[in-house]
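Lecture 7, part 2: worked example. A protein chain together with arginine.
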Amino acid sequence: MTQQSESNWSPRFESALHPAIAIFNASINFDIELIEYDLTGSQAHAKMLAHTGIISPDEGEQLYAGLEQIRQEYRQGKFNPGIDAEDVHFAVERRLIEIVGDVGKKLHTARSRNDQVGTDTRLYLRHQIQEIRQKLREFQQVLLSIAEVNIETLIPGYTHLQRAQPISLAHHLLAYFQMAQRDWERLGDVSKRVNISPLGCGALAGTTFPIDRHYSAKILEFDDVYANSLDGVSDRDFAIEFLAAASLIMVHLSRLAEEVILWASEEFGFVTLKDSCATGSSIMPQKKNPDVPELVRGKTGRVFGHLQGMLVIMKGLPLAYNKDLQEDKEGIFDTVNTVKACLEAMTILLGEGMEFRQKRLAEAVCEDFSNATDVADYLATKGVPFREAYNLVGKVVKTSVSAGKLLKDLTIEEWKQLHPAFEADIYDAIAPRQVVAARNSFGGTGFDQIKSAIASAHHTVSHK
Ligand code: ARG
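Predicted complex, written out as structure tokens:
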């Protein structure tokens, strides 16, 4: 072999890359992930070349079939390009030439790897976004089904992680349903900007060939084509938007994970973890650890990191393509895999890996002063200005705490002494169930509100 033939490049290059630089430069180890999209993109490009008469129909068909053969080889595990291929695009082109001969050398007419890799990444993300949205739906379904059977299960509601007011467990879970719904919608919105074709932008300036960008875009089911070739090859806004949307999904999963971890602690005791979703300790035989939510909470860090990484990659890049952009892929792939895995794990955890301890929850809402607002509301309904009522109740909480009593333990005489407006119905008004039921304002925790929230959630998840 001459030195020149060892290089991927034109005869301008007289010798091959330094072996360490070849490894440093290569992306094949990770961009092989794009192969199916690369093949699909190249098939559309080949069809476009034939359609516009840049190559003959027969040549177009040979290219198409050769690419299809590579797809089959890859699926059968028979296509494993090494580091010498540099990246997936060269690997495919090289194999195509082996399969179809010289006509394979026509595939790269009127195209650059710059518009090619942009096309592949968008096709990949478009597909993955659909899969993530599907997983969000499954996550929402499980939240909804637990909510449905826990409308009247009460759980302490917190602010500042201090007991605030009791709420319906369904209401708590449906809050996460809403977050997931925004995530689902946000990904749909990001998709609109992912689904624009850069194919045909060439290296940066377009091409001298009479290509038809709209034709290949249509085959690939893109909604539109980039209007400016420089922008088309160097834009990664869509990737940043995706990473930001993925980061928000992780924020939501991580918040829920944190709550499950708290709930599973001895101190809260609101849930029991089932053996299928918990692990033990190698030294402490009594331990049952919430590894699943801990991992979800922990993995959130890497997704935020990928968003930050991508923003930094882009911030000083002059137009148009720069090799820095090769660094977009690992973060995107890892984000896709992490978000999918975390959604799946949380769905399993909620659906079959944990159980709410009904008895403990029922006790929890009876053991504190979280019905204090309701006493103030009671007086306010009877004409006492709210701030005055609030101060009265503050006083009674203070004396009760020092007497080791709860509000429900006060006698009717004690209530009347506090304010003559109190009647025997105060006991009903401060019973946890009534405290929850009474919050019937739109979006509140009242049972009637929850029932209509569940009905509308069912309607929401029916949209695929
Ligand atoms: N592997 C490259 C990437 O991922 C493909 C594009 C290479 N283009 C170039 N001009 N070197 O970005």
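The pocket of arginine is lined by residues 27, 31, 87, 113-114, 117, 321, 323, 325-326 (CB under 6 Å). The first helix runs from residue 19 to 25. Keep this in mind for problem set question 3.
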